[in-house]
Amino acid sequence: MSGLNRLTLTIAMSLFMVPAVGLIFNFTPLGIEPQPVAAALALLTIVFLFLGAHREYLLQARLTPPMSNFVYDAGKSLPVT
């Protein structure tokens, strides 16, 4: 994904998540106060951070060839005299 696509997706997610968290807190006894909203947004950021890191790990594991392709056995290819 290009940098411009990532930037656009980041801005769009921010514009969606902040009002969604505010709307959820509007219906809780905590109300819309800065501390709970900031804590919820920080928690969502951490959750999405770990989800993205996990997806990147799975992608790298799938794209990285096994090490057995790179093992060189010198005894098989050398002529014995």
Topology record:
Layout: H1 3-26, H2 34-63, H3 74-77
Please give a structural write-up:
With 81 residues, the protein is mainly α. It has one domain. Helices cover 72% and strands 0% of the residues. α1 packs antiparallel against α2. It is elongated and about 85 Å long.
Backbone structural class: mainly alpha
Rg result: 24 Å
Report strand %. under 5%
Low-confidence stretches: none
Distance between the termini: 55 Å
What is the number of domains? Answer: 1
How many helices does DSSP assign?
Answer: 3
The succession of helices and strands, N to C, reads HHH
Helix proportion range = over 70%
State the shape: elongated
Major β-sheet annotation: none
Mean pLDDT: 84
How many strands?
A: 0
Relevant terms:
3 helices, elongated, 72% helix, mainly alpha, 81 residues
Give me a quick take on this structure:
This protein has 81 residues and is mostly helical. It has one domain (3-65). The protein has helices at 3-26, 34-63, 74-77.
